[in-house]
Design a protein that fits this description.
The protein is α/β, with parallel strands linked by helices. It has 2 domains: 2-123, 2-Layer Sandwich (Alpha-Beta Plaits), CATH 3.30.70.270; 135-254, Response regulator (Rossmann fold), CATH 3.40.50. The protein is built from 9 helices and 12 strands. Strands 2-3-1-6-7 form a 5-stranded mixed β-sheet. Strands 9-8-10-11-12 form a 5-stranded parallel β-sheet, with helices on both faces. A two-stranded antiparallel sheet has the order 4-5. Helix 7 (192-201) links the parallel strand 10 and strand 11. The longest helix is centred in the N-terminal third of the chain and has 18 residues, at 16-33. It is elongated and about 65 Å long.
């Protein structure tokens, strides 16, 4: 993952046209510095993602460092004045069995560490103290929302397992354990309330903290959710920051033990 440093200041000071020029310039530097077989794409906003087939994490890190050095040495002329731009990056080596969501989240944690360390750098190794502590299961059939949830929660240090339906979520909790369940109500295979009922009747989920995530906000639905054993009820659309705070509060209140290794 590659993220331009302080890019908002460029847009605010010089305008979005200048910001677009910088994005194109960064893309050119990345594309011409990396190998022809490497893939560079804009991920969104001021973020890029690069895939370097066959490279080790250390080798990819050196390649991204070279691109960063070229960027440092190449000022952009904006409104007649030179403007120096840098980026922060997180690099991982993707193992064949590693799901794409987990790979992106791992790279994103390293990117976050680079930002925290002062920006303008590339981080390859796993940040100390950033290993997941609690396993969260997300039962959500909206792939875009699920990806955003997984990324945000893993950045906070949680281990996250995404299940696209209720049956998969129940099976995962029974098989591997969990510290908390984030449960959508409208799932393709069953009603989320039915999943909650089954969970509360099971030996493995009777006391598991459950947060319902849904657009169903009528008083009747909210009351039903709590009566069936939900610990919290969050309406869509919601703030990821607020949701993470609610998750932490529940884990602290319940003092959920870490998943057995």
């Amino acid at each position: 993952f590659i993220d331009l440093d302080n890019f908002k200041a460029i847009n605010d000071s010089y305008g979005h046209t200048a910001g677009d020029e910088v994005l194109r310039g960064v893309a050119r530097i990345l594309r011409t510095t990396l190998r022809k077989c490497d893939l560079v794409a804009r991920w969104g906003g001021e973020e890029f993602v690069a895939l370097l087939p066959g490279a080790t994490a250390e080798g990819a890190g050196r390649a991204i460092e070279r691109a960063l050095e070229r960027l440092r040495e190449t000022p952009f002329e904006l409104d007649g004045e030179p403007v120096h731009v840098t980026f922060s990056a997180g690099v991982i080596e993707i193992e064949s069995e590693l799901p794409v969501e987990q790979a992106l989240a791992a790279a994103d944690r390293r990117l976050y560490a680079a930002k925290e360390a002062g920006r303008n750098r590339v981080v390859v190794s796993e940040p100390a103290g950033d290993r997941p502590r609690h396993r969260l299961v997300v039962a959500e059939d909206d792939d875009m929302l699920a990806a955003a949830l997984v990324r945000a929660l893993e950045r906070e240090g949680f281990e996250v397992l995404h299940c696209p339906d209720g049956a998969a979520a129940l099976a995962a909790i029974e098989r591997e354990g969990a510290s908390l369940l984030l449960l959508d109500v409208r799932l393709p295979d069953s009603d989320g309330f039915e999943i909650l009922t089954k969970l509360r009747r099971s030996r493995f989920g009777a006391r598991l903290p459950v947060v319902i995530l849904t657009a169903m906000g009528s008083e009747r639905d909210v009351v039903r959710g709590f009566e069936l054993g939900a610990d919290d009820y969050v309406l869509k659309p919601f703030s990821l920051t607020e949701l993470i705070a609610r998750v932490r509060r529940l884990l602290q209140r319940r003092r959920v033990p870490r998943r057995a290794r």
